[in-house]
Specification:
The protein has about 70 residues and is mainly alpha-helical. It has a domain at about 30-65. The chain is about 60% helix and about 0% strand. It has helices at about 1-20, 35-45, 50-65. The radius of gyration is 22 Å and the shape is elongated.
Length: about 70
């Protein structure tokens, strides 16, 4: 069964390459880690009371298109 899956994936990838696509690998932070949560918390807390942050958030709220979100 493993060989059948491998062959199917190979054919799928060949089709993508034939369509002019290529694979790209990216690495992203592991959001399940406690260290990631702590870093996010630190960075968020560092923005509390920052006038530029308040200005940026106000601008985002002004220009965001949220029609139909809820």
């Amino acid at each position: 069964m493993r060989a059948a899956v491998t062959e199917r994936v190979r054919k799928h990838r060949e089709g993508l390459r034939a369509a002019g696509l290529k694979p790209v690998q990216i690495w992203i932070p592991d959001t399940r880690l406690e260290s990631f949560r702590k870093r996010c918390e630190r960075e968020c807390l560092s923005l509390v009371g920052d006038p530029l942050e308040a200005e940026t958030l106000a601008w985002i709220a002004e220009v965001a298109d949220t029609d139909g979100w809820v």
